[in-house]
Automatic annotation (TrEMBL):
This is Putative ABC transport system ATP-binding protein. SMART domains: AAA. Belongs to the ABC transporter superfamily. Macrolide exporter (TC 3.A.1.122) family. Keywords: ATP-binding, Nucleotide-binding, Transport.
């Protein structure tokens, strides 16, 4: 198996000088390439904190996080920025698209930071918008797109740099049932056809039902880690 994420004894502590509060408490987490995993638990359980540390947006107070064997907890601030740019894709609950840019320009922006040539950027953008079924919306600004469409553009942006994996923090929270279903269909297809690794932080049962592994956090600790056969995965097996 090809290990993508390996977190060893990771903790994040607040109020260290008074009464310590562990947002994440001695967590060990190992993900292989191609997994489709939901990180679940009640509000305040540490899901987003753990996701942010894996994504290099925050540093653990204890432990180490390896991405493809690289210990990101030992990187300098500048090296970490470059590492995120080239290795990790993010999908946020609030979309985080740049309002003055078109859908195409939002997706292209990551590749510009990577100094990818215009010809290659255009080819990649066209491929991604075909994958998210939004070829006709390339030149629309976010204000002209529905919530579901904006989140699909956010997925395309996360994929633009060809990252090692995608971290998705409550990606369906602001979407209606149809939009959420369409988005999950796209991500499940990308996972199946391109072996893209997804790690979700979610309360949404719709996401949990699609996951093939569900990790439950309570008070910053992993209390359950279960591999499951989702309904959609079972249907795939029956058809093959």
């Amino acid at each position: 198996m090809d290990t993508v994420i390996d977190a060893h004894n990771v903790s994040k502590v607040y109020n260290k000088d008074t009464i310590p509060v562990y947002a994440v408490n001695n967590v060990h987490l190992h993900l292989e390439r191609g997994e489709f995993t939901a990180l679940v638990g009640p509000s305040g359980s540490g899901k987003t904190t753990l996701l942010n540390m894996i994504g290099g947006l925050d540093k653990p107070d204890e432990g180490n996080i390896y991405i493809n064997g690289q210990d990101i907890t030992q990187l300098s601030a500048n090296a970490l920025i470059d590492f995120r740019l080239r290795n990790i894709g993010f999908v946020f609950q609030s979309f985080n698209l740049i309002p003055v840019l078109t859908a195409k320009e939002n997706v292209e922006f990551i590749m510009q930071l990577q100094k990818i040539k215009r010809k290659d950027r255009d080819a990649r953008v066209n491929q991604l918008f075909k994958q998210i079924d939004m070829e006709e919306k390339l030149n629309e600004r976010p204000s002209k797109l529905s919530g579901g469409q904006q989140q699909r553009v956010a997925v395309a942006r996360a994929l633009a740099s060809k990252p090692q994996f995608i971290l998705a923090d409550e990606p369906t929270a602001n979407l209606d049932t149809k939009s959420a279903s369409n988005l999950l269909d796209i991500m499940a297809r990308l996972n199946k056809e391109e072996n893209i690794t997804f790690l979700f932080s979610t309360h949404d049962q719709r996401v949990i039902d699609r996951a093939r592994r569900v990790i439950t956090l309570v008070d910053g600790r992993i209390v359950n880690d279960t591999s499951v056969v989702s309904t959609s995965h079972m249907e795939d097996k029956l058809h093959n």
